């Protein structure tokens, strides 16, 4: 999928992760100082390859690489909440979807890209007409990301103790998202 973000003028696009094409890139990104504290996946390359293969084989989620103006710069895990551990923490609907993300290269941090990318991915997930809620559970220490989720339209629900972190459960409802972002539009026919 691809769109030109009206607010920033950036071309934002996503494509699904491919093991051989993305292994070294994602392994490198998971070793970045700003990623390690929140993801804790700075494994050796063989261990990371096995981990990534397991993620790709997991049918409850889809992994994406995000691009800005044709350059790869972010990693996304989009998942069905009912099949995720998160379903143990709230009254999940069968069509709820969730998002995990990070920016890989440090040069893309602080450039105003997080909100346009999150807004685009959230709108994309809402293309599944039965989905009325997108969920997230950012690490409670990640104040910058929590702020971006809130700006996008996610509302804090409660702090939750997950196996790997203390997270803030957040919900983004379809009606409030599209009331806030009336002009989000993209073509699913265009691919990177």
Main features:
single chain, 192 residues, alpha+beta, Aminopeptidase, eight-stranded mixed β-sheet, 6 helices, 8 strands, 30% helix, 29% strand, globular, disordered C terminus
Task: Provide structural commentary.
By secondary structure, this protein is of the alpha+beta class. The chain has a single domain (2-180), classed as Gcn5-related N-acetyltransferase (GNAT) (Aminopeptidase, 3-Layer(aba) Sandwich), CATH 3.40.630. Helices cover 30% and strands 29% of the residues. It contains six helices and eight strands, in the order E-E-H-H-H-E-E-E-H-E-H-E-E-H. The chain has helices at 19-29, 36-39, 45-57, 114-125, 143-152, 174-180, and strands at residues 2-4, 11-16, 61-68, 71-80, 97-103, 133-136, 155-162, 165-173. Strands 1-2-3-4-5-6-8-7 form an eight-stranded mixed sheet, sandwiched between helices. Helix 1 crosses helix 3 and helix 4 crosses helix 5. It is globular, with a radius of gyration of 16 Å. Keywords: Acyltransferase, Antibiotic resistance, Transferase.
């Amino acid at each position: 999928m691809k769109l030109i973000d009206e607010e920033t003028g950036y071309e934002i696009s996503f494509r699904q992760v491919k093991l051989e094409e993305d292994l070294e890139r994602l392994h490198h990104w998971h070793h970045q100082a700003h990623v390690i504290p929140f993801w804790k996946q700075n494994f050796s390359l063989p261990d990371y390859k096995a981990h990534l293969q397991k993620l790709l084989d997991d049918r409850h989620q889809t992994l994406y690489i995000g691009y800005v103006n044709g350059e790869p710069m972010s990693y996304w895990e989009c998942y069905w909440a009912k099949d995720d551990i998160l379903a143990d923490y709230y009254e999940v609907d069968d069509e709820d979807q969730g998002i995990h993300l990070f920016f890989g290269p440090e040069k893309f941090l602080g450039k105003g890209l997080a909100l346009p990318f999150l807004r685009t991915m959230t709108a994309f997930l809402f293309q599944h007409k039965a989905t009325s809620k997108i969920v997230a559970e950012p690490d409670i220490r990640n104040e910058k990301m929590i702020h971006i989720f809130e700006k996008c339209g996610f509302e804090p629900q409660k702090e939750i103790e997950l196996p790997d972190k203390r997270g803030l459960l957040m919900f983004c409802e379809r009606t409030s998202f599209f009331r806030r972002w009336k002009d989000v539009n993209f073509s699913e026919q265009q691919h990177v």
